[in-house]
C-alpha cells in the first residue's frame, strides 16, 4: 500500500490498488471480558477464515456502492497509523433538515460481528425497497464499518491474530514532550493478547492504544497545539494518570480517533450507535439464559472539567432522555418474534468522557451502545448469524422509529427496567469480575 507523510501523520494516497484487493490478509476475532479486556482461553483453537480482511471489506464496500444506484457514497475520511484507509459509507448527506445517524463498529480490532452486521445493513439500504426508502427520505445514515484496521490485520507467527489495540508506539520526545513522560493510561506497551505456538501459549503484544479511550468532548482539541504552548503542563497531566481509568477525557493522540472526531463534527448526528463485543453473562439467578447483547444509554455520570480550557462538559438531560428512548426502541424490538433475542442486560455503568460515545454524547448526540456476546472463535457459525441479527434488528428498529418520529413517544422507563449487568461467566466456567 502506498503511503505518504502529511503533517506528521500517515495518509494513504487513495484506494488500495486492485492487486491488493485480491491479497489474502488476516481477518479478525477474539473475545472480551466484561467490561473491557480481551478473553482468549489458554488452549483455544482460533479460527478467522470466515471473516473479512481489510482488503475484502474494502472490496465489499466498493461493490455495495456500485450496486446502490447512488443511494450510497463511499468515501475515505482518514487513515490508520499503519496506513490503512478509513471508510465511511454515506446514505444521504449532512442535511440539517433531515435526522442524522452515525453507526460505527470495530474500534477494537478483535470485535468483529458488528462489522459484519453493518455491512449487511448497508446492503439492505443500498438495495432500496419501501423500508429503505421510508428511512432514507427522512434520515441520513453514515456507517464507519471498521475504525481499527491495524488491530484487525495483526499477525502472530504469520497467522491472523487480531488485537483490541491499535498499532502505535508511544514516543514522548517525538511529540515534543519531556523524556520519560507517561503514556496515556489506555496505552498498552506490551499488548495483552495471548498467542499460541506448538509448545503452548506465549504472551506477546504490539504497542498501541485502546482507541475507544482516546477521545475528547472538545472536537477542536489539538494536543499538538497544547504541547507547543506548554509541554510541561501536558506532561504533568499525563504523569497524573494513576488510577484514571477513563474518568478524564483523553488527548486524541491516534490518527484514527482524530479522523473519526472530524467526521462526527461534519455529520453532527442526532443519534450515534457503536457496536462492540463483550464476554458471557447469565440473565439472572432465576433465568439462566445466556445474554445475547447488552445495551447502554449513558456514558458519563458526572461533569467533566477540561484541564486545558477549564470548560465543563455535562450531559444534557434531554440528550439522556432521547438516548434512553433509542435504547428502549432497540430493547422492545428484540422482545418480539424471537425469544432467543430476549435475554438482554444493561452494560455496566461507566464514566467515560474520553470514550467515543462519551465525547459524542457530551456534544448533544443521543447514543446507544450494543455489546454482542462472545466472539467468533467461541461461538459456532450458526450462533454468529443469530448474533448478527441481534445487532441488525434493533438498529433497523431505531432507524425506522427516527424516520417516522415514533422514537419520541418511546418510554424511558422501558430502558430503566432492562435488567442490570450481572452474573458474568469466566472462560473456565466460573464468574468473571
Radius of gyration (Å): 21 Å
CATH class: Alpha Beta
Helix vs. strand class: alpha+beta
CATH fold descriptor: Aminopeptidase
Give the tally of structural domains: 1
Mean pLDDT: 83
How many helix segments?
Answer: 13
The fraction of residues in strands falls at 15-25%
Low-confidence stretches: 1-46, 427-433
How far apart the termini lie comes to 42 Å
Q: What sort of overall outline do the alpha carbons produce when their principal axes are compared?
A: globular
Q: What percent of residues adopt helix (DSSP H or I)?
A: 25-40%
- Order of the strands making up the biggest sheet: 5-6-8-7-15-21-17-20
Total number of strands: 22
CATH superfamily: Zn peptidases
**Which architecture name does CATH use?**
3-Layer(aba) Sandwich
Major β-sheet annotation: 8 strands, mixed
Keywords:
disordered N terminus; Aminopeptidase; alpha+beta; 433 residues; 8-stranded mixed sheet; two-stranded antiparallel sheet; 13 helices
Amino acid at each position: 500500500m502506498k503511503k505518504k507523510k502529511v503533517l506528521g501523520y500517515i495518509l494513504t494516497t487513495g484506494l488500495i490498488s486492485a492487486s491488493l484487493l485480491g491479497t489474502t490478509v488476516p481477518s479478525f476475532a477474539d473475545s472480551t471480558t466484561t467490561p473491557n479486556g480481551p478473553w482468549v482461553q489458554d488452549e483455544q483453537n482460533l479460527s478467522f477464515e470466515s471473516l473479512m480482511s481489510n482488503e475484502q471489506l474494502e472490496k465489499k464496500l466498493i461493490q455495495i456502492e456500485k450496486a446502490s444506484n447512488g443511494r450510497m457514497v463511499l468515501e475515505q475520511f482518514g487513515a490508520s497509523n499503519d496506513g490503512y484507509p478509513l471508510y465511511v459509507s454515506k446514505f444521504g448527506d449532512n442535511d440539517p433538515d433531515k435526522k442524522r445517524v452515525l453507526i460505527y463498529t470495530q474500534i477494537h480490532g478483535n470485535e468483529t460481528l458488528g462489522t459484519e452486521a453493518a455491512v449487511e445493513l448497508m446492503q439492505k439500504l443500498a438495495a432500496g425497497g419501501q423500508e429503505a426508502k421510508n428511512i432514507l427520505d427522512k434520515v441520513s445514515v453514515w456507517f464507519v464499518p471498521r475504525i481499527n484496521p491495524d488491530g484487525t490485520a495483526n499477525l502472530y507467527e504469520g497467522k491472523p491474530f487480531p488485537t483490541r489495540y491499535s498499532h502505535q508506539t508511544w514516543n514522548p520526545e517525538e511529540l515534543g514532550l519531556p523524556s520519560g513522560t507517561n503514556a496515556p493510561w489506555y496505552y498498552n506497551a506490551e499488548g495483552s493478547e495471548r498467542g499460541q505456538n506448538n509448545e503452548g501459549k506465549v504472551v506477546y503484544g504490539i504497542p498501541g492504544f485502546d482507541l475507544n479511550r482516546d477521545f475528547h468532548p472538545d472536537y477542536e482539541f489539538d494536543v499538538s497545539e497544547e504541547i507547543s504552548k506548554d509541554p510541561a503542563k501536558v506532561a504533568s497531566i499525563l504523569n497524573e494518570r494513576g488510577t484514571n481509568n477513563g474518568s478524564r477525557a483523553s488527548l486524541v493522540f491516534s490518527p484514527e480517533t482524530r479522523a473519526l472526531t472530524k467526521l462526527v463534527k461534519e455529520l453532527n448526528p442526532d443519534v450515534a450507535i457503536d457496536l462492540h463485543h463483550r464476554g458471557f453473562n447469565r440473565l439472572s439467578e432465576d433465568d439462566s439464559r445466556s445474554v445475547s447483547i447488552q445495551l447502554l444509554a449513558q456514558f458519563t455520570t458526572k461533569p467533566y472539567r477540561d484541564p486545558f480550557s477549564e470548560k465543563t462538559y455535562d450531559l444534557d438531560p434531554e440528550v439522556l432522555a432521547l438516548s434512553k428512548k433509542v435504547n428502549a426502541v432497540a430493547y422492545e424490538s428484540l422482545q418480539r418474534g424471537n425469544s432467543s433475542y430476549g435475554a438482554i442486560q444493561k452494560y455496566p455503568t461507566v464514566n467515560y468522557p474520553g470514550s467515543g460515545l462519551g465525547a459524542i454524547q457530551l456534544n448533544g448526540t443521543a447514543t446507544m451502545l450494543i455489546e454482542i456476546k462472545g466472539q467468533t472463535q467461541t461461538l459456532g457459525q450458526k450462533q454468529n448469524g443469530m448474533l448478527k441479527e441481534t445487532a441488525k434488528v434493533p438498529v433497523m428498529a431505531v432507524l425506522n422509529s427516527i424516520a417516522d418520529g415514533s422514537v419520541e413517544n418511546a418510554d424511558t422507563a422501558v430502558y430503566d427496567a432492562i435488567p442490570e449487568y450481572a452474573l458474568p461467566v469466566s472462560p473456565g466456567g466460573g464468574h468473571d469480575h
